[in-house]
Amino acid sequence: VQLQASGGGLVQAGGSLTLSCVVSGFTAAYYPMAWYRQTPGNERELVAEISTGRTAYADSVKGRFTISRHAMENTMYLYMNNLKPEDTAVYYCNQRPALSIWGQGTHVTVSS
Questions:
Q1: Apex CA 106: angle with CA 74 and CA 20, to 5°?
Q2: What share of the chain in percent tops pLDDT 90?
Q3: CB-facing half-sphere around the CA of 97: CA atoms within 13 A
Q4: By the 8 A CB rule, do 56 and 48 touch?
């Protein structure tokens, strides 16, 4: 199993980024999937999740982030708009609930 997140970077507050997660080793469309994020010294937190016919978001990102997945590409996306400095974190993708295996994540830094 591999979960390869990419698309992070440095962006100013109010800006946008799109994160991608390429999945290998299982078919992502068959499982609930999610984006998580982690800041130094804190627990990894759930940001957004997607399952058949349903998406859900943490209150802190609701209305700003959109999760989607492309079954044929075995890829998941996180569209992040109106970014805030508090969105700065390492973002990871995984199943929901998460597997014990984690990818390297992708760093998002939002400057004020």
A1: 25
A2: 98
A3: 1
A4: yes
Residue environment code for 7-36, b if the CB has 16+ CB neighbours within 10 A, otherwise e: bbeebeeeeebebbbbbeeeebbebebbbb
Beta carbons within 8 Å of 59's beta carbon, 6+ residues apart: none
pLDDT in tens, 78-91: 999 999 999 999 99
On whether the CB atoms of residues 49 and 40 are closer than 8 A, the answer is no
Taking every pair of Cα atoms in the chain, the longest distance, rounded to a whole number of angstroms, is: 39
Cβ count within 10 A of residue 61: 22
